[in-house]
């Protein structure tokens, strides 16, 4: 009967795909073995506040260093025994701190996949267990909650089995999907959040259920003002009247984890939003996470074998993100990160945060006086140009994803505002996700491989991003990727949309042992949500007509060496220079600049009005002089088919002549000649020495 249920709810092609999954059983076993190995990273990115730095972490090196210091100092006759004791104590403390909240094997695998290490995290299975079992009444509470969950889900499960037995399982899917959504709402905040996660996980749940869970709302009745005001006073350590001259008597918004009030600061008269956490929500979340993790441990073997995904890993991803949302001091730091990233962008508004008025359960931030995207008619009535506003929104979303690697994880219409001056504003930064530099580069690689129609490398990108276990044979996936991309790209920019591509990708997930990492499920959710907002406000808006020019501009103007390398990969195919691609990139990049500089929605200072290619041309000239391989390819491109390609050069020049200040560029090139000559001589001497 269990197989019946999983076939009905999760994977309609389960039995037909079982044989294919069995072929990858050895790969899944190797993945499981990897998940049981300890963390030993050579180089990972550690996020401290707003900075990322490269660090070396090895759990074993801590103990080894302490032992080595103690032994060495003891050998010199105890002369430095005091120092040895201090060092040993320090090392032991470091080791203890690493083991407090020690990551499970699944969490360690997450760190490796993300390229981001979090040595001191709030979530770990051990931390959750100790929190839940620390009180005497915990066992009774756990049993009671467990019975409630098992009874509720058991009844639902039995209806699915009955539907299958009487042969009506497909015809009642819409009803059962709505029933599941309502069931999750009734089970409380942990299940509401779990449902929102499942809505973006085609590797776990079938598409028709996903579509229903996409509309799962986080709105719940507010808790009493008296309780909320008491929490504010406890967190801030002062009476409410001392901090605020007035505060709204009704909540502005209420969700499963907290609610929001509008207030005015007594000291400055500024309007602010106060976010207050629900009372006693943390013990409830910890209790449910403990039950989720216990259930995942029982189901892990089944999920690995039948579904190709690690149940413990999925729960750990979910638990880590949920506990981050509970910590409002972390949300305050997220706001500061976004403020730093968009400080020079006149098209985006991020609310300021009052850190001196923030605590784990209370967050005070600047009030955003704009129109929520939940009210399209109000935006139109305000006279805001919809096409211009949506162009700003798409550009801001792509900057978060591809430039900063820190993006809003829940950009639903209630969290996005249209400002009267045409800017886009974001609120609710509890759910954000981080993409490491490596992940960003692999995403750009995937775009480059798609442009070059290199589907074999696209499949390898899936492995590098964590969608496939290392060692998986990707050859069966290549034709499927080719079919998806050619079908989508063949429609052109006008008809391309992410939802159709995602629908086709969901079918691919059913056919192969693909797991969607949590950070990329948020990427998919973010893109789909924002595309949905675009279509709601303006049904004929072309998302990709804004996105593609932005990517072209990034490739042409970003000084990052990794992106320079990707630009070369785009411009050369099979060793042949692609003149038409260069012209298309230049045209698209100019289009992006024109759309932003002449945006009718913006009433603030204009953004850049020209495509600045100065650094790109300088880097290209330097590369031509120093890289013999590139130099040979460009000369061949200019003399291909035994003729000079002057016409192509003229076409390219006409595209850039208005964007480049030739005298200024010539002066900068002349000033840079000594450095270029030095690098040329170093390159030449290295080649001479290597020949010998």
Automatic annotation (TrEMBL):
Keywords: Kinase, Transferase
GO MF annotations in UniProt: kinase activity
Keyword Repeat: no
Domain Protein kinase as annotated: residue spans: 246-577
SUPFAM superfamilies in the record: Protein kinase-like (PK-like)
InterPro entries documented for this protein: ABC1_dom, Kinase-like_dom_sf, Prot_kinase_dom, UbiB_kinase
Gene3D superfamilies hit by this protein: Transferase(Phosphotransferase) domain 1 (1.10.510.10)
PANTHER family (UniProt xref): CHAPERONE-ACTIVITY OF BC1 COMPLEX CABC1 -RELATED, PROTEIN ACTIVITY OF BC1 COMPLEX KINASE 1, CHLOROPLASTIC
Membership in a protein family: Belongs to the protein kinase superfamily. ADCK protein kinase family.
Protein name per the record: Protein ACTIVITY OF BC1 COMPLEX KINASE 1
Organism of provenance: Cardamine amara subsp. amara
């Amino acid at each position: 009967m269990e197989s019946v249920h999983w076939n009905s709810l999760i994977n309609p092609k389960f039995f037909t795909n079982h044989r294919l999954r069995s072929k990858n059983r050895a790969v899944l076993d190797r993945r499981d073995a990897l998940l049981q190995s300890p963390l030993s990273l050579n180089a990972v990115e550690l996020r401290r506040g707003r900075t990322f730095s490269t660090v070396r972490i090895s759990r074993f090196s801590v103990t080894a260093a302490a032992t080595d210091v103690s032994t060495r100092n003891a050998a010199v006759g105890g002369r430095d025994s005091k120092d040895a004791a201090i060092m040993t104590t320090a090392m032991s403390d470091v080791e203890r701190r690493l083991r407090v909240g020690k990551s499970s094997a699944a969490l360690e695998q997450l760190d490796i996949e993300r390229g981001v290490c979090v040595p001191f995290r709030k979530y770990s299975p051990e931390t959750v267990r100790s929190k839940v079992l620390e009180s005497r009444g915990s066992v009774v509470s756990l049993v009671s909650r467990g019975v409630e969950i098992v009874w509720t889900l058991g009844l639902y499960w039995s209806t699915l089995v009955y539907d299958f037995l009487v042969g009506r399982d497909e015809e009642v899917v819409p009803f059962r999907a709505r029933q599941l959504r309502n069931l999750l709402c009734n089970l409380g905040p942990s299940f509401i959040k779990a449902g929102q996660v499942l809505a973006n996980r085609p590797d776990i749940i079938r598409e028709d259920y996903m579509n229903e869970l996409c509309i799962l709302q986080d709105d719940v009745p507010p808790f009493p003002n008296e309780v909320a005001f008491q929490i504010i006073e406890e967190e801030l350590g002062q009476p409410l009247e001392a901090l605020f001259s007035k505060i709204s008597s009704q909540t502005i918004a209420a969700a499963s984890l907290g609610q929001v009030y509008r207030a005015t600061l007594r000291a400055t008269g500024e309007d602010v939003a106060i976010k207050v956490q629900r009372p006693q929500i943390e013990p409830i979340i910890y209790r449910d996470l403990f039950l989720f993790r216990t259930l995942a441990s029982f189901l892990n073997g089944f999920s690995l074998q039948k579904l190709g995904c690690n149940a413990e890993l999925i729960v750990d991803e979910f638990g880590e993100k949920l506990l981050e949302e509970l910590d409002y001091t972390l949300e305050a730091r997220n706001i500061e990160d976004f403020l730093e990233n968009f400080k020079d962008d006149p098209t985006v508004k991020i609310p300021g945060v009052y850190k001196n008025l923030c605590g784990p359960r209370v967050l005070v931030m600047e009030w955003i006086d704009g129109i929520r995207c939940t009210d399209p008619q109000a935006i139109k009535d305000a006279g805001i140009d919809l096409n211009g506003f949506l162009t700003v929104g798409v550009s801001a979303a792509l900057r978060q994803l591809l430039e900063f690697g820190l993006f809003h994880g829940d950009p639903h219409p209630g969290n996005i505002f249209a400002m009267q001056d045409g800017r886009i504003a974001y609120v609710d930064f509890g759910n954000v996700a981080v993409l490491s530099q490596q992940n960003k580069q692999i995403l750009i690689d995937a775009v480059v491989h798609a442009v070059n129609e290199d589907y074999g490398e696209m499949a390898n990108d899936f492995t590098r991003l964590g969608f496939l276990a290392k060692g998986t044979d990707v050859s069966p996936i290549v034709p499927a990727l080719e079919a998806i991309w050619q079908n989508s790209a063949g429609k052109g920019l006008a008809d391309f949309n992410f939802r159709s591509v995602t629908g086709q990708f969901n079918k691919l997930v059913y056919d192969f042992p693909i797991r969607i990492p949590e950070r990329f499920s948020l990427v998919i959710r973010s893109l789909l949500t924002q595309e949905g907002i675009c279509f709601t406000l303006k049904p004929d808006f072309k998302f990709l007509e804004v996105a593609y020019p932005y990517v072209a501009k990034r490739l042409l103007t970003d000084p990052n060496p990794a992106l320079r390398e990707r630009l070369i990969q785009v411009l050369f195919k099979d060793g042949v220079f692609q003149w038409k691609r260069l012209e298309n990139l230049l045209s698209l990049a100019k289009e992006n600049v024109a759309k932003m500089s002449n945006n009718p929605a913006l009433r603030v200072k204009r953004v850049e009005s020209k495509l600045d290619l100065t650094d790109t041309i300088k880097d290209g000239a330097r590369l031509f002089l120093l890289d013999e391989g590139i130099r040979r390819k460009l000369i061949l491109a200019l003399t291909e088919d035994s003729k000079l390609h002057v016409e192509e050069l003229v076409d390219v020049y006409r595209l850039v002549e208005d964007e480049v200040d030739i005298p200024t560029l010539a002066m900068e090139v002349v000033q840079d000649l000594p450095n270029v000559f030095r690098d040329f001589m170093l390159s030449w001497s290295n080649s001479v020495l290597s020949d010998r």
